[in-house]
Write a structure and sequence with these properties.
- The protein is an alpha+beta fold.
- A 6-stranded mixed beta sheet has the order 1-7-8-4-3-2.
- Helix 4 runs antiparallel to helix 6 and helix 6 packs antiparallel against helix 8.
- The longest helix is centred in the middle third of the chain and has 20 residues.
- It is globular, with a radius of gyration of 20 Å.
- Bound molecules: adenosine-5'-diphosphate (ADP) and magnesium ion.
- The site of adenosine-5'-diphosphate (ADP) has 19 residues, from strand 2, strand 3, strand 4 and strand 8.
- One of its GO terms (molecular function) is protein serine/threonine kinase activity.
- InterPro entries: Kinase-like_dom_sf, Prot_kinase_dom, Protein_kinase_ATP_BS, Ser/Thr_kinase_AS.
- This is non-specific serine/threonine protein kinase.
- It catalyses: L-threonyl-[protein] + ATP = O-phospho-L-threonyl-[protein] + ADP + H(+); L-seryl-[protein] + ATP = O-phospho-L-seryl-[protein] + ADP + H(+).
- Keywords: ATP-binding, Kinase, Nucleotide-binding, Phosphoprotein, Serine/threonine-protein kinase, Transferase.
Length: 322
């Protein structure tokens, strides 16, 4: 469902990697099992390293796509993962192999699956869990932005969990569309999934770190309501919803969370990128640090939450190690 790039795809691509790409046969080193997910050009399979018994996720990336050599894109994805190596919220790259058709990235296994499943499920997460996951996502995004990297494909399918129930910690995956900012000139590209991308992408306007913050707003909306805020009946309608920032804040689901949740999302789903808060600024939003949440799990019995409580100096600022 990705759109074709209209811009120079080479803009912002990284070319240097440290991880060797081994040509040793994968099957002799790993036992491959079930499929964990797949996209247009990649299949991800669960596998076990024979020597250690450790579980990994093997991402098979096709070297040729639409008759074109895409090795540079794969190298770029590896380079971004390497740049983010010290970022605990980003999945770790363990090793890389090459087969006839693919380059295979051996990634840290995120056993909890996609947070998409938490949005699509009947039972929505308690607010305290949502804010914890959003905090972790913002921590990861903040560190990426500090390295001048933008992810550009943040969505509930690309935020995974270390364990499922209760939800573990988040791991950001899928750096295929990630770009480095500020290298040569400005970055304009049309990419991502319309439902989740910011208006500036659809309008072919310059991309900045603020583009990722839009997506964090979409993810927060989906975790709170279980609905995708801009999804229309077709692509045209979705585009229109995004470019007009047509968001429904009246959903019943919002009555089960504190009003600070709506305030947080409203600050991110803003058309002008320069008016969105940075990841670091978001991290000091009171919604993410409040300790008392709406306690009713039953929407029918939902009471209005306690609002604007003092959250103690300890929580007033983002953690110092950011
Ligand atoms: P694509 O570029 O095709 O979207 P992704 O990197 O997003 O590829 O992987 C596709 C899907 O595979 C993810 O949405 C997720 O469900 C699963 N997946 C990817 N990486 C891992 C991982 N490290 N651990 C567990 N599942 C993964
Ligand atoms: Mg993906």
């Amino acid at each position: 469902r990705r759109l074709d790039s209209r811009g120079g795809l080479s803009a912002g691509l990284l070319g240097e990697i440290q991880t060797p790409i081994s040509t040793e046969p994968l099957e002799s080193l790993y036992d491959m099992s079930g499929e964990l997910g797949r996209g247009k050009f990649a299949v991800v399979k669960r596998c076990v390293e024979k020597a250690t018994g450790k579980v990994f996720a093997a991402k098979f990336l096709r070297k040729r796509r639409r008759g074109r050599d895409c090795r540079a894109e794969v190298i770029h994805e590896m380079a971004v993962l390497e740049t983010a190596r010290n970022n605990a919220r980003v999945v770790n790259l363990h090793a890389a192999y090459e087969t006839d058709h693919d380059i295979v990235l051996l990634l840290e296994f995120a056993a909890g699956g996609e947070i998409f499943d938490l949005c699509a499920c009947d039972e929505l997460l308690p607010e305290a869990q949502i804010t914890r996951l959003i905090r972790q996502t913002l921590e990861g995004v903040h560190l990426l932005h500090q390295s001048n990297l933008v992810h550009l494909d943040l969505k509930p399918q690309n935020i995974l969990l270390t364990s499922p129930c209760p939800p573990g910690d988040i791991k950001i995956v899928d750096f295929g569309l990630a770009r480095r900012l500020g290298a040569v000139g400005e970055l304009r590209e049309i990419l991502g999934t319309p439902e989740y991308v910011a208006p500036e992408i659809l309008n072919y306007e310059p991309i900045t770190t603020a583009t990722d913050l839009w997506s964090v707003g979409v993810i927060a909306y989906m975790l709170v309501t279980g609905e995708s805020p801009f999804a229309g009946d077709d692509k045209q309608e979705t585009y229109l919803n995004v470019s007009q920032v047509n968001v429904d804040y009246s959903r019943e689901a919002f009555s089960r969370v504190s009003e600070l949740a709506v305030d947080f999302i409203r600050k991110l789903l803003v058309k002008a990128p320069e008016d969105r808060p940075s990841a670091a600024e978001c991290l000091s939003h009171p919604w993410l640090w409040q300790q008392q949440f709406c306690l009713s799990p039953e929407p029918a019995a939902a009471t209005r939450p306690v609002r604007e409580r003092s959250c103690g100096a300890k929580w007033a600022a983002p953690p110092e190690d950011l």
